[in-house]
Amino acid sequence: MMKKNLLRELPSVDELINSALKKHFRYSKALVTDAARAVLEGLRAEIINGKRESLPADLASLVEERAASMTSSSFKRVINASGTILHTNIGRAVLSNEAIEAALFAAKGNINLEFDIEKGERGERDSHVEGLLKKFTLAESVCVVNNNAAAVLIALNTLAEGREVIISRGELIEIGGSFRLPEIIKKSGCVLREVGTTNRTHPKDYIEAINENTAIIFKAHTSNYRVVGFTADVDLKELSEIGKKHNIPVVEDLGSGALIDLSPYGLPKEPIVRERIALGADIVTFSGDKLLGGPQAGLVAGRSELIEKIRKNPLKRALRADKLTLSALEATLRLYLDEERLREKLPTLRFLSRPLKEIEETAERAAGLLRKRLGGAYKIDVEDSESVVGGGSLPGYNIPTKAIAVTNPAETPEKIYRLFLENNPSILGRIKKDRFMLDMRAIEEASEVVPG
Ligand SMILES: *Cc1c(COP(=O)(O)O)cnc(C)c1O
Predict the structure, then answer these.
(1) Do 236 and 280 contact (CB within 8 A), yes or no?
(2) Exposed/middle/buried for residue 109 (C-beta within 10 Å: 0-12, 13-18, 19+)
(3) What is d(CA 251, CA 213) in angstroms, rounded to the nearest whole number?
(4) How far is the CA of 423 from the centre of ligand 1 (A)?
């Protein structure tokens, strides 16, 4: 009975639209109409489900709120206190100011993306970054696609379609987010030829698998796990010797692919693209938004003759990077020209090499603010912890860090996790050993991890 009465009290769509329009909200009639319908539908459902016993007083304001939420962005800022520095789910590398400005510049108007201003004719879009990439990788040629998965796909499809790709069983990797090498090889139109075993593969395994239909010897950097114990693999130098002898190109998927040696920054040595080229890889593929610290992109570096074929593949047109990516990538690469200033300017490198003392200072400051903000039963402690690089870089390597444990005997860690996540901006921590933690390695401003 009460439900029926309440439903009868609801205004008609037209009445609600008119009362909302009279308030002169900043929305058009069409949007107000959509919002009014949604508000009425929501109320009706609540009444029918017994979740409502009276109507809100100001329905017009509900329409305005609804219109505001309908037109607001689905993207929210996420503060990365997760301890994973290159976190794929929240967009990996944070761009440098230089890269941000470059993308903005490109977005605001037209640019000479693939237009040669000197000649007044069509140019080549990858030319803006190829020179720098050649300089840093010492490859003869480099081309750019949308991500490293695309780089692997186009390299395989160009050089081995309908033919065999030899790869060690120990390197048939899966990277998070459904990149599985066997599937990419299949989708590239190639035939997978596995050799060796999960833990041991020898040169003769490759040599015995070579036949007249072999197109590529493929090597994948096992970037998110390590095989330890009784293991053997064939190093790149030896593989490239086998490749040369049989006239078969060696393609390496390096994944992260650092452009520079990271050991001076206190990090373990991740394979450097330049060194892989020098060791004899004919093609190396790597990501733009992992250790390189730039926008999402896939780089294919290698011998001119092969890169030229890749450029001519119609897939290149489908996988080409856009002007925002190429502009941000070029600006990121230009930072590498002055390696002395690189750390200061490239957030990824700055976070990864941040001195523990500095992290601790920020953590203590943030802990003070959190105590003030949360108070009561919350316990806030700064502790030793470990960050990981993420994005499949430096597997098994943990970087000492400082984290803030936020605990409350009256709340589950999941509840606290949600409390921080639901803040605007979202604060992404993690639950470790049944406690909620904020890793401070990528947090340079203490107040960022304090909910508003
Ligand atoms: C990360 C990674 C990929 C996928 O690269 P995206 O840029 O995410 O497409 C492929 N292979 C390896 C070895 C990786 O580490």
Answers:
(1) yes
(2) exposed
(3) 16
(4) 31
Task: Write the residue with the smallest CA distance to atom 6 of ligand 1.
Answer: 148
Alpha helices in 202-322 (DSSP H): 203-209, 236-246, 273-278, 304-312, 314-319
Ligand 1 atom nearest the C-alpha of 256 is 15
Residue 148 Cβ contacting ligand 1 at under 6 Å: yes
Return the residue whose CA atom lies nearest to atom 10 of ligand 1: 255
**33: Cα separation from own chain's centroid:** 38
pLDDT, averaged across the chain: 95
Dihedral class, residue 264 (left if φ above 0, else alpha if ψ from -120 to 50, else beta) = alpha
- Convert the pLDDT of each residue in 161-195 to its tens digit: 999 999 999 999 887 667 889 999 999 999 999 99
Q: What is the pLDDT of residues 388-408, one digit of tens each?
A: 998 777 777 899 999 999 999
Best substitution site from 144, 178, 184, 253 to test ligand 1's pocket, by max atoms within 8 Å of Cβ? 253
State the pairing for strand pair 179-180/174-175.
Answer: antiparallel
